[in-house]
Write a structure and sequence with these properties.
Layout (H helix, E strand, L loop, with lengths): L1 E5 L18 H10 L4 H17 L13 H10 L6 E7 L5 E6 L11 E8 L4 E4 L3 E2 L17 E2 L2 H14 L24 E4 L9 H12 L11 E5 L5 H8 L3 E5 L5 H7 L8 H9 L10 E7 L7 H11 L4 E7 L13 H13 L20 H16 L1
Parallel strand pairs: 5-8, 8-9, 9-10, 10-11, 11-12
Antiparallel strand pairs: 1-2, 2-3, 3-4, 4-5, 6-7
The chain binds S-adenosyl-L-homocysteine and iron/sulfur cluster.
S-adenosyl-L-homocysteine binds next to strand 9 and strand 11.
Length: 393
Amino acid sequence: MTAVLDTPAPEQQLATKPSLAGLGRTGLKAALASIGVPDKQLNMRVGQLWSWIYARGATSFDAMSNVSKDVRGQLQAAFTLERPEIVTEQVSTDGTRKWLLRLPRRGREARAPEIETVYIPEADRGTLCISSQVGCTLTCSFCHTGTQKLVRNLQPEEIVGQILLARDRIGDWPGAAGPGDGGLIPDADRKITNVVLMGMGEPLYNFDNVRDAMAVAADGDGLALSKRRITLSTSGVVPEIPRWGEEAGTMLAISLHAVRDELRDKLVPINRKYPIAELMAACRNYPGLSNARRITFEYVMLKDVNDSLADAKALVRLLAGIPAKINLIPFNPWPGTAHECSDWEQIERFAEVVNRAGYASPVRTPRGRDIMAACGQLKSESLKLRASQRTIG
Ligand code: SAH
Ligand code: SF4
């Protein structure tokens, strides 16, 4: 593991100039109007900014050669194109990268909130795992984020900002060295091909902001990530699932983790409100569901808790008739957890039952273990480090 960046926690400053990076068209329009761009020019200017920010990855207004010098100067005086600040960047031996990011304080926040973003390169794709909230209101027993209180929802631009920052850091813009050659990056050359909302937080509890952010991510004139390559993962906020399908239309993943209500009530407590049968009904009715557009069911392997072969068989029965993929996730332990990861042989036996039912290679290989790339871990680790630094110093 290499930590290539590590900035100390400073006395937080409120951002002086707001950043335009991450804003939707309405936000950009309002920003341009506020610096006096005439109404009849607004749409044209928004289009220019859009292309520079989202298709070419501009980080300064100077680069925007087709924007008049005057307007560039006004933009420069009033705004920035800053991304979230990097607190740490860790690179795993397997190429996985994990960023701890600090966001500008909002309102009366005493501390600048911190979130995490993870990039996972694979042979046929590169997946960016982004956060939707700082902390989480839910308390799933195996998840470290669940032990952190919800601090706040992320704004749409803070969600999009994670994608921009990751593309900056891994050189994923056209021409990589800098903008200027125009156009979109060809699909085949992209490093980030997929985005998953599987970082910190429950995205369906920040519905509007996550939807608006994904609209920016999917916009064909900018980041142009196909909705089929964006996956929202939910613990099961049943009433919002059909609305997400209609209004956002991305792929869906369900954090199932148990096939019996009495166990799921304990592991994923939102189950007490929306039990398995209701969740399955929402899945069956998910708009656009087909064999080409399957729902992913995530199942974390917890030793002697949910990993029996009877559970594997019940899982297959439960999903019968739903176009589904199954992801068996080896539990990633964290300090203080009561859970253990299932033995590898047991995971294989469980996977065999699932495989026999027609689901291909369902075990998700642990990535970035050396940098603890599981939900919620890095943030806690950094807090711990600071506490110990305080004791020593
Ligand atoms: N709140 C949403 C999305 C974030 S969690 C949800 O629960 O789906 C993303 C995934 O990471 C979920 O499937 C979650 O169950 C899983 N996860 C959380 N902690 C984990 C751990 N310690 N080991 C393995 N997977 C974990
Ligand atoms: Fe929140 Fe998802 Fe973690 Fe549950 S698994 S506590 S819903 S982030």
